[in-house]
Amino acid sequence: MTESNRLRIAIQKSGRLSKESQQLLKSCGVKFTVNEQRLIAHADNMPIDLLRVRDDDIPGLVMDGVVDLGIIGENVLEEEQLERQLVNKPADCIKLRELDFGACRLSLAVPNEFSYNDAQSLEGLRIATSYPNILRRFMQEKGINYRDCMLKGSVEVAPRAGLADGICDLVSTGATLEANGLYETEVIYRSMACIIQSNQPQTPSKQALIDKILSRVNGVIRARE
Ligand code: PRP
Ligand code: ZN
Ligand code: MG
After folding, report:
1. Range of 63's domain?
2. Which of 69, 79, 127, 210 is such that its CA lies 20 to 30 A from the CA of 216?
3. Structure letter (DSSP) for residue 175
């Protein structure tokens, strides 16, 4: 029985968006307690279940209609959409709104000793990334040939480890790049957290709850501005 009368919201289990995602829902009046060992947290005062999962899984869960809402970085959403379009999987969802946290950028970066003029400096080189589709789109637009080095994590150590010449990774404060002797050369995508809804038809009561949550999100963000 995978249908549920309760609204399912997927949020990041741990990472850059997890605290603020929980905080936003609490500010909207959703009462819940997170048990670190548990995937699901049931709200006490509304028919809402929170699913705490890997950020990368959130867009797919929403696009497949497994959950009703998700809070996710636009970068992860964009990457998953491009990936799914390639393999003809459902790639649509409704972006309800951009949120006021999770700012980051997806950037190209190279070792400090690399002399970089423009993106052409990467012609023929190998680039490590967890965002192969956004990177490919950028490089195709510029007409640059490059080679992939697909890594789900630790992308920033790839050049020093001799796995790649440069990287394409998320930058927020820049501390990770600096700690790894890399500098940012090109921003290829700017991102914020956003809230997305599955485009499956909803029952009137669930849609009413979504509308209520969204109007509270709007109020919370307006009050924080
Ligand atoms: C990103 C990125 C770097 C870090 C950069 O990971 O991969 O590790 O943040 O942040 P900084 O510029 O402030 O040092 P993130 O935790 O967002 O995602 P992930 O755990 O899904 O890789
Ligand atoms: Zn991730
Ligand atoms: Mg990381």
Report:
1. 7-102+193-224
2. 79
3. H
> Does residue 78's CB lie within 6 angstroms of at least one atom of ligand 1?
no
Please report the beta strands in 74-200, taking only residues with DSSP state E, as ranges in sequence order.
Answer: 94-98, 104-111, 126-129, 147-150, 166-171, 182-191, 193-197
CATH code, 168: 3.40.190.10
Same domain, 173 and 119: yes
Ordered DSSP codes for 71-86: EEEHHHHHHHHHHHHH
Query: Do 98 and 114 belong together in one domain?
Result: no
The interface predicted TM-score (ipTM) is: 0.91
**Ligand 1 atom with the shortest distance to the CA of 170:** 2
State pTM to two decimals.
Answer: 0.94
Proximal ligand: closest to the CA of 104? 1
Q: For residue 133, what are its two tokens?
A: 């589709």
Q: What is the pLDDT of residues 164-203, one digit of tens each?
A: 999 999 999 999 999 999 999 999 999 999 999 999 999 9
Q: For residue 2, is it within any domain?
A: no
Q: What domain count does the chain have? A: 2
